[in-house]
Design goal:
22% helix, Glucose Permease (Domain IIA), 3-stranded antiparallel sheet, 219 residues, alpha+beta
Length: 219
């Protein structure tokens, strides 16, 4: 299991701080106190290492009409809704909620060309709440597919998430199995599809980023 590049500096910093704390305790407190702190330190480092894991995924999908899950998590929304930022019309919204136990790397859901990227500062409501899509810190990415359809992917920060990392940039060619970005701690990803898209997932279904087929666009 590899560590995602977004976590390497954080893990190095955590390890340094934990070692420093244990050295101070070694010279200042009893062995019992040191033993307890070593256990807590190991648990803390293991948790953050687990959070920043980066599994290798290489889905073999060559159908340009298929939309793949951009994140691990649970489908919490499937509904027609008005997308106000870019399309300004009604779209099918599919939302995937990521808990702190999910992998937090995000994948491009379809191959194409990035047409729009915008980061918005905002609040930090619980990511599963509907208003988080409009009011939380977020970053929106619009991709035009080879079939000339456009979809919008929105990374949304949650209560614990305080940083959204997005690798997309306008006119960048994007591909399946390529990382779109990373959201640190609990968060959510919304996808806005054309109304005639055929949805393949159900509310409450678990998704695997880069592998689960969630919809098909009309050719």
């Amino acid at each position: 299991m590899k560590i995602h590049k977004e976590g390497r500096w954080i893990l190095s910093s955590i390890l340094f701080i934990l070692v420093l704390i244990n050295i101070i305790i070694y010279f200042s407190f009893s062995k019992v106190f040191l033993d307890v702190n070593i256990v807590l330190s190991a648990f803390t480092f293991f948790f953050f290492t687990y959070f920043f894991r980066n599994p290798s995924r290489a889905g073999d999908i060559d159908d340009p009409s298929l939309v793949i899950a951009p994140a691990d998590g649970t489908v919490v929304v499937i509904e027609p809704t008005v997308e106000h930022e870019y399309f300004q019309d009604k779209r099918i919204q599919i939302s995937i909620f990521m808990s702190i136990f999910n992998i937090h790397a995000n994948w491009y859901p379809i191959a194409g060309v990035v047409k729009y990227v915008k980061h918005h500062n905002g609040k930090h409501f619980a990511a599963y709440r509907p208003k988080s899509s409009r009011e939380n810190e977020r970053c929106s990415v619009v991709i035009q597919t080879p079939l000339k359809s456009k979809i919008l992917v929105r990374q949304i920060a949650g209560v614990l998430a305080r940083r959204i990392v997005t690798y997309a940039s306008p006119q960048k060619s994007c591909h399946l199995n390529e990382h779109l970005g990373f959201i640190k701690f609990g968060s959510r990803v919304d996808i806005f599809l054309p109304l005639d898209a055929e949805v393949y997932v159900a509310h409450g279904e678990k998704t695997v980023g880069g592998e689960t087929i969630i919809a098909r666009l009309k050719e």
